[in-house]
Design brief:
- 20% of the residues lie in helices and 36% in strands.
- The chain is an alpha+beta fold.
- It has one domain.
- A four-stranded antiparallel beta sheet has the order 1-2-3-4.
- The radius of gyration is 15 Å and the shape is elongated.
C-alpha cells in the first residue's frame, strides 16, 4: 500500500542497534525490524483513518506477521484530558502490509486504565 504522505513520527531518542536474539533473530534484523513494523502499522492506519496516531502501545510478533495496538486522537477537546482517544488493533502480514484493523475501545485522554 503506497504512502501518499509520510506520517508524523515522534522520536524517543533511542537508536536501534539492529542486533536481535531469540524470536527477533527469526524475523531478520531484530530491533530495526520491530521499529519498521511499528512505523508501518502507524503509517498505514493513518492513511485509512486520516488521523495521525499518537503512539503504538503494543507490538507483538505473530505466526503470520505482527499485531499492534495503536492509540489515535479521535476528538480533540478542551481541556486536553477530555479529548476522546481510541485504541486500534492492527494486523500486519510478514511483509508489513496491513491486513486488518479494528477499534478496540474509546476512552478520554485523562482516563486511567484500571486493568492490571
Amino acid at each position: 500500500m503506497p504512502a501518499s504522505e509520510p506520517a508524523k513520527r515522534r522520536s524517543s531518542g533511542k537508536r536501534s542497534t539492529g542486533r536481535g536474539t531469540g524470536s527477533d533473530a527469526r524475523r531478520g534484523s531484530g530491533h530495526s525490524n520491530v521499529a519498521r513494523a511499528m512505523r508501518s502499522a502507524a503509517q498505514q492506519l493513518e492513511e485509512l483513518l486520516g488521523r495521525a496516531p499518537e503512539s503504538v502501545s503494543k507490538l507483538q510478533p505473530t505466526e503470520d506477521g505482527w499485531e499492534a495496538d495503536v492509540e489515535v486522537l479521535e476528538l480533540e477537546r478542551i481541556p486536553e484530558t477530555t479529548s476522546v482517544m481510541a485504541s486500534y488493533r492492527v494486523t500486519l502480514d510478514k511483509k508489513g502490509e496491513l491486513v486488518s484493523y479494528e477499534r478496540m475501545r474509546r476512552y478520554t485522554r485523562g482516563q486511567i486504565d484500571r486493568r492490571g
